[in-house]
Specification:
With 118 residues, the chain is of the alpha+beta class. It is 16% helix and 28% strand. The chain contains three helices and six strands, in the order αββββββαα. It has a six-stranded mixed sheet with strand order 4-3-2-1-6-5. The longest helix is centred in the last third of the chain and has 10 residues, at 102-111. The protein is globular. 19% of the residues are buried.
């Protein structure tokens, strides 16, 4: 991704797969306080009108961000299906520190077939 973005522009954005199907939306971002980089996007998936929705952590590096010249929104593309997202490891904001060690976060990177980045 090039350019700068406000977090408020990212949260609430749709997540689409490579077939332009909406598979979720970005609810929050997880930052690495040591480096200042976005580590994960928290994606809401499934459910109906917010009921029964699951939250999953998706490595920021798994997204392909592409701004459509004719649209104001920035689609966050993810090489995944809704079913794969629904089967992803769940995100629990009460256990945020558990995502810090490599042994906890590397399986999440592997789920999305992206290289682990510290």
């Amino acid at each position: 991704m090039t350019g700068l973005r406000m977090a408020s522009e990212i949260t609430g954005s749709s997540v689409k797969n490579l077939h332009s199907e909406k598979i979720g939306h970005i609810e929050d971002l997880v930052l690495d306080a040591g480096t200042g980089r976005i580590r994960f996007a928290v994606v809401g998936v499934g459910g109906f009108l917010g009921i029964g929705e699951a939250q999953v952590a998706v490595p920021w590096s798994a997204f392909d961000v592409n701004r459509d010249r004719d649209a104001e929104s920035v689609p966050y593309l993810l090489d995944s299906t809704r079913e794969q997202l629904e089967k992803a490891p769940r995100f629990d904001r009460n256990k945020l520190d558990e995502l810090q060690p490599r042994e906890a976060s590397e399986p999440i990177f592997l789920h999305y077939r992206v290289v682990y980045i510290e």
